[in-house]
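[step 3/7] fold_predict: job queued, chain A
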Amino acid sequence: MKLISSGVTTRRALALARKELYSHSNSPAFYGIAVFFLLFTSIWLFYIQRYFTQDAASLRGYFAAFPLAFILVIPVITMKSWAEERKLGSVELLLTMPFSEWELVLGKYLSSLGVLLFILILTIPLPLSLLPLGHFDGGVIVAEYVGALLLGSAAISLGLLLSSLSKNQAGAFLGSAVVLMAVMLVQQITFSVELPAALAGAINFISLAFHFESFAKGLIDSRDLVFFILATVVFLFLNTRVILYRKWR
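[step 4/7] structure written:
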């Protein structure tokens, strides 16, 4: 019985995700943010990191730009998910449909993750074009892409939560950008200020960029893997609580 219920939930969430993906594909913001991401990461690698002056076959500098780019990319992807529904009043109609809170949230999450995955796929030609120039470790590159997807997953779930708390797209974008900037860059405090080990550890723990560092080095650390998965689940759960509150308010 539980398997049947789980299957129905998955089908409903995927159906909603397809609808949301169609909406994203008709949005100019989607294409704009994809171009921005590709340009930003490429400029970071070739002009800021000066890739061709380095005597190393590594893309670590390229993937190091991903957390910074996500500060703007993720809010654009998630800002309209709930905020626009609320502004247009369509959220009330959505809540009357035969979807559970988890199905609605999962549908929004999967569509946003699909958009991010598409953008990451667009970056693959760059590493492929550099492969003939050196002896790259394929396993390291795969680990870096896995880390980027996990980082994006956690950021998307946080962005969706903030979108559900916002009244319009502008508020959702600004709120998500500010919060993501904080959780991405908070670890910089530990580099510039000498802090007690316990406090520095706590600050690093809440930093998404800190947990991405091992992946950027080509290492899949089980602790960072668990952190990203738990962060995604927790933010999605909180999103369902917000939706449930609005449903019965």
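[step 5/7] annotate
The chain has 13 helices and no strands.
The longest helix spans residues 138-164.
exit 0
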